[in-house]
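Write out the 3D structure for:
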Amino acid sequence: MASRPDTVAVVAGARALTFAELDREANRVAAGLAGLGVGLGERVALVLPNDLEMVIAVYGVLRAGAAFCPINPTTKPAKLERILEDVSAAAVLCDRESAEIVATAASPRAAIVSDIAELGAGAAPGAGAAMIGPDLAAVIYTSGSTGEPKGVTLTHSNMSFVADSIIEYLEMTEDDRILCVLPLSFGYGLYQLLTCVRCGATLVLERGFGAPGRIIQLLEESRITGLPAVPTIFQVLLSLRGLADRELPHLRLLTNAGAGLPEPVVRSIRETLPNAALYLMYGQTECQRVCYLPPAEADRRPTSVGIAIPGTEVWIEDDEGKPVGPGVVGELMVRGPHVMQGYWGRDPGSEQRLRTGRWPWERVLRSGDLFRRDDDGYLYFVSRRDDMIKSRGEKVAPREVEEALHAFAGVRDAAVVGVPHPMLGEAIHAHVSPNRGVELDPTVLRRHCAAMLESHMVPQLVVVHEELPRIGSGKIDRRKLAEVSDE
């Protein structure tokens, strides 16, 4: 797993694993799964928190020749049952805290292991299954635009390619120490593990982002070189007093994905942590990573998500499938070895998202997201196609209204949704949360929007929340906000 087997691969709290120990533990789990009758290509669900057991389980499943299916342990029982049934899990690896819920949700045919340490104990480790690039490596579930879980199928080739591409543009080396507070069940978090192991770097795992002060302490004491985050994490860290005065000599890179960073937050990060390169990125579970903005462009193009990752190609098409030029909004198309094989057991869904590419055997991913590009070829996210609001006969991109709201001092988060309206088609409702100690006046915010936006973009309603609801990946839960607006 690394050229330096005695190097620490993963740290989780007071516990750590070297690459040699991870190699040995993965072989043990693989032997245990073989003993349970888990065969080549079968799916093994991992209902585990961010800890060493989750790391061992991922590589143990792969060594067994099976495919892993990471599931957040906070997943509600009904959804967990749907996923386990859909993926036909041959085994479920969990901890004791999740064991009762898993036992209720899993098929009677599935083997349930609630103590990873006991799996394969005493078994003679084998050489591992002989897997090749086209073999199934993972089924990762995403809710997408429908809310119904869909299993994205990824091969060893898919995952190794995108991991190598990320390592290349982030210029990762075995000297890096990456701090991950993102769930490993979330693609953005999972690839922190995969890239670190692949290039021999050290991953420092936290179970979550519960104590911002703890994160700052880890950045200092653990000599962290890289911090991947989502907008909420950056905003909370920036709210800490004295962050700019901290000496973080080892921190060389910051990455953002999962949701776009508002321009004021980008500028605040650059002012507060000027010595750390900021990578603004965009991706989807269906291919993991699509594009990144080179750090040198962050100050000039703070709202851009950049260019295609190495080894891939992207372009924008109109509704007739024709490529469009600079400034024209259309659907982003993605081509490369990282594109998924399809959705598990969902042929209609796969046909909607994948189409024949340049060659008869190739599939191109339709992102379902609307983008534009500038004259230099840099990409800008406009909206999810499903999120686009049609009000007063005009199309409104929520991101444009949200940017206007973020420009108002004191707004921490903003999300805009469309709500059915008998006269307008859809009414624009804005949901915002304030920075600590700030009171926001909805009427003042509407006036602010009216001064910055065209009349058809001004929200009919502004609702102030203490916190905006979020889903497990850290993204704002727009469906829940739409329900609030309906009420």
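The longest helix spans residues 19-35.
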